[in-house]
Amino acid sequence: MGGRSPEHEISLISGREVSKNLDHRKYNIVPILVSKNGERWQLTTEKSLTEIENPIKYKGTKMEIEVSEKKVFTNMKNIPGKPDLVFIAMHGPYGEDGTVQGMLDLAGLKYTGSGVLASAIGMDKLMFKRIMVEENIKIPKYIELHPGQPTSIIGRKLGGPPYFIKPSDQGSSIGCSVVRNKKSFEKSLKLAWRYSKYALVEEYVSGKELTCAVLGNENPVALPVIEIIPRKAEYFDYNSKYLESGSEEIVPARISNNLAKRVQQIAIRVHKVLGCRGFSRVDFIVKNTKIPLVLEINTIPGLTPMSLLPKAAKASGITYPRLLDKIIKYALE
Fold first, then answer.
1. For labelling, which of 66, 124, 179, 310 has a CA lying 20 to 30 Å from the CA of 216?
2. Strand ranges inside the chain, DSSP E
3. What is the pLDDT of residue 170?
4. How many other C-beta atoms lie within 10 A of the C-beta of residue 56?
5. How far is CA 73 from the centre of its chain?
6. CA distance 315 to 309
7. What residue ranges in 27-76 does DSSP mark as E strands?
8. Segments of the chain with pLDDT less than 50
């Protein structure tokens, strides 16, 4: 958990929740907290993790989250004993983008979730969109921009604002913003470029926000569709995701059975097209009340108490510990 990502704190909360809910009768659990610069790997205890108060308060700072009990090492070779499985609870760059997956492959260690290629494509939103277009899977119209590139082409392709602008390789809505006028356009572009080489400018689609989690490898199944209603912003941003009362999540979503089945089918297809394994979550926006457009895929969905995957699993009668068992089982297949 942790690591070199703007989602460092969310990753810690996910990792702590995983450690707490794993069945201690089945598993010997060794929590590892990776520092924000990636240089310090702290082997710690579950008790030390529970003592950390509100990791979110460290967001945006260089302050490291300290644990009371730790053994510091610098690479996987120093871990005592060889683990049967590494449960990856890291989000964003270096954790969800194939980087740590490649390192674990080199070390000959099994791990949860997707492999290097699916992880890398899932995090690279531009490459993901290109594959969706190639597969005839509907997405919002978009254009990519890098610093110094003329912005005049945006109007020709997307028309006038509003737009939705996001970095090309971040998660948790970090660096995202809605642009409603030309005045805020440059500011939003600079925000996205702060996090990524490319900024993606999308048509702004007003409609129901939906998400659908998928479990499995070669024969995956979709969990119930969740409807997301942001309470603190006009879209499902960082605060909506992780602050209490930031949003309302309704499961099953208040949509027709036909639309729900369509969303589930698309989510499974996206999971399979990318070659995902274990689990994923596909986000949608519904255009004109009936056309589900794919926004992105999360190859390591959040596993915090507020996260959507555990809520969808619960609606299917799958407890959190059983959900973790399933993820581990898929990783060992």
1. 124
2. 32-34, 41-43, 71-73, 142-145, 163-167, 177-179, 199-203, 209-215, 221-222, 226-230, 247-250, 279-287, 291-298
3. 67
4. 16
5. 27
6. 10
7. 32-34, 41-43, 71-73
8. 236-242
| C-alpha–C-alpha distance, residues 299 and 267, integer Å | 12
Strand intervals (E) in 126-235: 142-145, 163-167, 177-179, 199-203, 209-215, 221-222, 226-230
> Do the beta carbons of residue 169 and residue 125 sit within 8 Å?
yes
The label of the residue with tokens 């871990």 reads: 79
Q: Using CA atoms of 252, 253, 256, 260 in order, give the dihedral in degrees to the nearest 10.
A: -80
* Domains of the chain and CATH, by start: 8-112 (3.40.50.20), 121-138+206-332 (3.30.470.20), 142-203 (3.30.1490.20)
Tens of pLDDT along 95-150? 999 999 999 999 899 999 999 999 999 999 999 999 999 999 999 999 887 777 76
Is the omega angle on the peptide bond into residue 252 within 30 degrees of 0, that is, cis?
A: yes
